[in-house]
Backbone:
């Protein structure tokens, strides 16, 4: 620390004090917090404990400081507020910046014994304002006597310390070297309650002033180098942990632990893990909230719902949405901690175990190859093709409409289409049928022959023989030869006598017991017989005779043309 320029005699006195401080324990190793005694009981030294924290102290001598850089590697910093009643012009900036960068901050005042001690104490608090949790107690820097006697020194130091404690709520820290204290203050037990900040450059285990048995902070160099500060700077060690430092700064300190689902931290803050669907865990990885669906340790992937997946890492969780990609979050066929996203194109639900298979995409345009993990790969069909699920899914000729659920014919095959792809196929010919009908109304139908041998039950009338060519005038048979029973179907007369206006064999109607044929929309139905074939008279043999003169090829062609489907 530095004071304002002082008379030469005082300067040399400070130099002598610093030289005397070099006569400490020289960095020898001493067990944790063990006190080392020399042959003179007044020469008491103390070494730091196993945990120390680095800090620095500054004043206007350091000029403008980049605190963002200077904070790196340091836990605390202490800035000078004044030298006596002279206010440090950089204090306000330093005080504000130390807090901004997250350092535990402190303030020190260079003590001028010839000035009123309480006035100096008031100046400190007027510039810091109310000190809160995270602010170290104010420090009194005791380095000069300015002609004051040891008794006057003790009185002034006590007056300052008692005012600070009464008005800040914090017990102040005293900064003083061992030789200066022993020679110029000679204070005793009344000062031991105040933490000691000890300047001693060189030794790891510095010599203590007679009133103390340990030190809280050790200023070990005045020529330190810190990023963000131009030139030399004082560097310090705090003897303790972060919790110890915060306790000194007035922050509440607790042993971190779980209180049910509530996590209590080192500052006694309480947070309920249960409010976030988690549990409080304190194990070898430390105190933390572990998400309810996660194991305490290690990685895991779990389902939070049928669409939401989460990755666990030692209880911490990262969420993802399978549903946003048209997938399910699934553990089907896996452990509860090995969830993965499964495409809804490959499985129908989150509980279906995925397997390798091929299917058709919606619309039937392409083939979808699903692997054993439920991941899809789309294979595009070429123009003129569509996906078919008849057998293994594949690209086949386009026979189905782009949408809907219909049946269509493909040759003698009846194909069931759904959502633009061929799903199933039936071979009508295998059952003696043919595929007939338009798209959406196709079906396998039975074929019924219409020749004389299969026509009427006893009439033997070829339906084809009664068409316009057989019974009409254009067929070469006059009205007299066109038996009404032969011509009725062809005439389209709905079962009435033949050629209009010229029925032959007057009164010779088609035997009522013969199969009178009704033609309705291309479908022939046969009335059940009610009499014997004998009642048909000569009409039956005439029809057969007429049919006999028709060339065989014609008969066959007509027979095909006259085939009628009966479903």
Residues:
């Amino acid at each position: 620390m530095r004071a304002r320029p002082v008379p030469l005699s005082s300067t040399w006195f400070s130099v002598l004090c610093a030289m005397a401080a070099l006569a400490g324990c020289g960095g020898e190793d001493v067990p944790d917090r063990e006190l080392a005694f020399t042959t003179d009981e007044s020469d008491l030294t103390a070494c730091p404990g196993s945990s120390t924290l680095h800090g620095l102290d500054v004043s206007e001598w350091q000029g403008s400081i980049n605190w963002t850089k200077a904070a790196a590697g340091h836990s605390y910093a202490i800035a000078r507020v004044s030298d006596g009643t002279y206010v440090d012009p950089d204090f306000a900036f330093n005080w504000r910046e130390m807090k901004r960068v997250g350092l535990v901050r402190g303030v020190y005042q260079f003590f001028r014994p010839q000035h009123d001690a309480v006035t100096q104490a008031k100046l400190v608090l007027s510039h810091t304002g109310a000190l809160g949790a995270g602010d170290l107690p104010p420090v009194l820097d005791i380095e000069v006597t300015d002609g004051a006697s040891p008794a006057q020194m003790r009185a002034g130091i006590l007056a300052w310390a008692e005012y600070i404690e009464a008005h800040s709520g914090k017990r102040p820290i005293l900064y003083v070297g061992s030789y200066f204290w022993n020679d110029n203050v000679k204070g005793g037990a009344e000062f031991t309650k105040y933490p000691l900040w000890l300047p001693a450059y060189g030794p790891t285990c510095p010599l203590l002033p007679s009133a103390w048995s340990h030190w809280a902070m050790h200023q070990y160099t005045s020529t330190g180098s810190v990023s963000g500060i131009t030139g030399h700077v004082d560097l310090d060690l705090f003897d303790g942990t972060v919790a110890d430092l915060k306790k000194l700064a007035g922050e509440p300190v607790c042993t971190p632990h779980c209180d049910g689902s509530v996590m209590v931290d080192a500052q006694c803050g309480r947070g309920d893990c249960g409010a976030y669907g988690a549990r409080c865990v304190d194990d070898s990885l430390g105190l933390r909230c572990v998400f309810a669906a996660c194991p305490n340790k290690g990685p895991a992937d779990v389902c939070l719902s049928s669409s939401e997946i989460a990755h666990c890492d030692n209880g911490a969780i990262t969420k993802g949405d399978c549903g946003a990609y048209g997938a399910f979050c699934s553990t089907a066929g896996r452990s509860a901690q090995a969830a993965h996203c499964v495409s809804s194109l490959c499985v129908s639900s989150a509980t279906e175990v995925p397997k390798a298979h091929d299917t058709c995409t919606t619309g039937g345009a392409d083939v979808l190859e699903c692997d054993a993990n439920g991941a899809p790969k789309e294979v595009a069909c070429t123009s003129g093709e569509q996906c078919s699920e008849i057998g293994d899914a594949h690209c086949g000729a386009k026979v189905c409409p782009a949408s809907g659920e219909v049946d269509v014919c493909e040759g003698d095959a009846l194909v069931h289409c759904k959502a633009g792809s061929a799903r199933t196929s039936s071979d009508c010919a295998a059952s003696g049928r043919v595929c007939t009908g338009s798209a959406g109304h196709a079906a396998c139908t039975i074929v019924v022959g219409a020749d004389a041998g299969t026509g009427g039950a006893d009439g033997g009338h070829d339906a084809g023989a009664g068409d316009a060519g057989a019974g009409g005038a254009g067929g070469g048979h006059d009205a007299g030869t066109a038996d009404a029973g032969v011509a009725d179907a062809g005439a389209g007369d709905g079962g009435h006598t033949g050629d209009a206006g010229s029925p032959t064999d007057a009164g010779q109607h088609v035997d009522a017991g013969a199969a009178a044929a009704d033609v309705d929309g291309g479908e022939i139905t046969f009335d059940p017989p009610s009499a014997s074939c004998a009642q048909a008279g000569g009409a039956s043999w005439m029809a057969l005779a007429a049919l006999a003169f028709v060339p065989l090829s014609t008969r066959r062609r007509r027979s095909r043309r006259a085939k009628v489907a009966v479903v």
Observations:
- Residues 150-168 form the longest helix (19 residues).
- The radius of gyration is 55 Å.
